[in-house]
Structures are given as C-alpha cells and as structure tokens.
Amino acid sequence: MNSGGKRVKTYQSPHQRPDTDTVVAIGSFDGVHLGHQALIRVLREHARAARVPSVVYTFDPPTRVLTQGAEYLSTLPEKLALLQRFKVDEVIAVSFTREFAGRTKEEFLRDIATLRPRTIVVGEDFGFGKGRAGKLDDLREVTPNVVALPMFQLTGRDIKSTRIRELLGQGDVEGAAELLGRSYDAVGVVVGGDQLGRTIAFPTANVKVPSGKLLPPGVFAVTVYVDGERHTGMANVGKRPTVSGTETRLEVHLFDFDADLYGQEVQVKFKRFLRGEQKFSGLDALKAQLAKDKEQARELLGV
C-alpha cells in the first residue's frame, strides 16, 4: 500500500540513476524493522550533512528468501512504501537472483562505486559477494567513510528479521510488532472464495497475497484498510480444517460492513492473537466459536 505523498525514486540498477554523489545504506531491509529504522536515521543524518541524496541499496527478494527458502516480511511494494515513510530519497532495488548471488565481491564493489557514495552505512555483520567474501574493509576501497552499526537491541535481544519470522510463525503478532515498531500487515486483493461464511452469518473476504509472503497462523483481531478507510474485524490464516480445506488462506470478516470487496486491494494489520486454528465438529460449532471470537476481538479492539 502506498503511504501517500511523493513516491520514493526507485531504480533496478545503480547505473540507472543520475551521476551524482550520494550516501548509501546497503541491506535486505526485510520488514524495515526497528534496527533498519535506526540505520536509516544514520543514513539520513549523513546525507543531510553532505547535502546529497540518501540512497538505500536493497535486494528483491531479500537474500534469505533465495539462499535459505525463507518467507519474506515485506513485498517490494510494501518495502518501498515503508522506506518512503521514513523519508529515504532513493532506492536501488536490484533483482537478487542466483546469478547475482554468485557475483564476486569486486563486481559488487563496482556497482556501489557507481553511486559515488560519500559515506556507506551498513550493519556490522554485513558481508557481500559470493560466499559473503566481501567485508567492511573492502567497502573502504570505495569510500573511507564506512559506518558499521552494531545490532540494534530491544530488552537485551538482537532485532533481526529471522527473529520476527520466528515470532510470526508462532502467531505472536504482538511480539513481532514490538520489533517492527508497528503492527505486521499483509496487502492483497480480494478474490472469490467458497462463500461458506455467508451461510453461517460470518461472510469473509478471501485475501490473496503474493506467493512467499509470511502469514502468521491462527485467528486474530485485525484492522483492515480499504481505500484508505479503517475497518475492524477478525482474520483466519490457515487451511480451514472444519470444511476440509487444503490450501492456506487469509480470510477476513469485517465488523459492520457489507459492501462488495471483490477485486479491491486491502491492507490487513494483525493486532492481537485470539486462538489457534482448530477443527470443529461441524458448521454449527464453528459458528458458535466465531461468535465468541468476534466478541473477544471487539473487546480487544475497543469497538
């Protein structure tokens, strides 16, 4: 979802942007969590001092998605919207393929040199090039001004995208929100479903998200944005065992809402965990539980 205002300038290669000096931050920025936000603040401070554009050089998909098969926290449009929110001037979003991952550190350094960086800002554990052979000292071949930030921590623990994935995998959306600095969300288009919810007075919007997007399993109290308007509701992420479902779906029931959403893009923000997905004896038992879920969700959301 676009966060509004002027869109951040985005390129797929450093060779596409104007030939000017910059200050550059490099990384996957998956989720743009509190640690990433701290790095962006340092990036912008150096860019303002040098009076040059602040540039984030990032990878699509994030490196662990390709190298480890991880699900991602942010689609590229979601990441760009977040970087725009934090007032980054430009983004270089390179396509992270196996070919790109196999490039030498020297090839990577030539790409970064194209950006004419006055300063480079990275995490202290940053590595690049095939086998992560490139280290901080190698970056200093491009500019002597390399700022390496220590891992950002909260309550004595490192804030990392891998930890956020673990929390979300457990349905702990509140724990993930603490590390993200905001509620975890998913953006998708409402598509046709089985319409079983209508038969038990709980119609749902079947939200199709891009393949590979991490979705927390369970039932949640949520807020949903439709055309910029905020609505409240509850969501189920799972295979719907009561009706013998076979694929994981994100289905949302909006409170006090009856408009047609088919074909519309919506943003679902996961606020509170209600319960894990479970199999009921039939639709009547499911309906009774959904009524309880709705009452709890309304209470948690204050509506």
Automatic annotation (TrEMBL):
Listed GO MF terms: ATP binding; FMN adenylyltransferase activity; riboflavin kinase activity
One of the GO biological process terms: FAD biosynthetic process
Keyword terms: ATP-binding, FAD, Flavoprotein, FMN, Kinase, Multifunctional enzyme, Nucleotide-binding, Nucleotidyltransferase, Transferase
Riboflavin kinase domain boundaries: 179-302
EC number(s) recorded for this UniProt protein: 2.7.1.26, 2.7.7.2
Stated family: Belongs to the ribF family.
Protein name: Riboflavin biosynthesis protein
Organism for this UniProt entry: Deinococcus yavapaiensis KR-236
